[in-house]
Amino acid sequence: MPSSAIDKAGYLNYCAHLYFLHNQIFFRNMNKKLFFLLPMLFLGAFLMFTPGCGEADPCKEVVCGDGGDCFLGECVCKVGYDKDATGNCVESRIKFIGTYNTTESCTPVSTGSYANNITASTTDISKIIISNFGDSGQNAVATVDGSKATLESTILQGATTTGDGTISGNTLTFTYTSKSDAGVTLFTCTKTMRKI
Fold first, then answer.
1. Model-level pTM?
2. N or C terminus of the chain: which is more exposed, having fewer CB within 10 Å?
């Protein structure tokens, strides 16, 4: 301990200088520690509140088929596909494909019964081919959208034919109109097609 006033002032100066150096070194090291510590705290908090990699995949057990992909445990079907009763994605047109017994009534008055086959188009997943359309012996192409089939404009027995149909279970009901080249309606028909 210093004995004189000068020594006391020098000692106090020395102590203040040591205190200053100590604080400067401590806080400099503290800044380095905080520089590494704060990111670790943020990372820990982030990981604590986010799901881990070990959680169950909601799509692990879901089978959608070739026509769909699983998203959050549900099948999402691609264009041209619909969900079947089991939730798998199948071609929308599959419900139309088959052999049918058809009855038809037209205006002006005529009726008829005949057979049709509906097959899948090989060029477009959304199209079907209807054989012997309108008992003409000719094929017609229709585009499927869900339970609806829309006939492409087709020349049948010299007349431009358009129409659409809806399937419910095994019954397809189709309404179509045939017009002359001048646009005059020649006949309008409704046909009921029952899958056999």
1. 0.66
2. N
